[in-house]
Amino acid sequence: MQPNIYLFFAGDCLEAMSHYAKVLGGEIGSVFRNADAARPEDRMPGGDDMVMNMDVRFSGMTIFGSDNTSDMYQTPQGFRIQLNLDSSDDFDRMFDALSPGAREMAMPPGETFWAERFTMFTDRFGTPWMLNFDGSKMQG
What's the pTM value of the predicted model, to 2 decimals? Predict the structure, then answer.
């Protein structure tokens, strides 16, 4: 058994998950839209283009996603997707790719007592992220 992340979006699931696949080096698996439902009762609320379910596969991990209508969508809270990066260049590249249009910058990139580079923010799609590069802080 392996836990997976399942993200909900306010109508921009395909755009968000495609962006994550590109930025994180993943591959889009399946994409099921409302229009793909064989029977009307199998549809979720919303239009034909609403994503019912999709997945992006990374090395050893899958992130799932779905659209919600505006009355059903809730901003994610109580978690962050954490990426522990191998270099300050990787940190900067990932931050530059995920943070444009950020809804919230909880902690701007900077040094901490445990990491050479650390940040927490919520991206333009509403997904909360935490990026970390230990560098020399956690060696030895």
Answer: 0.91
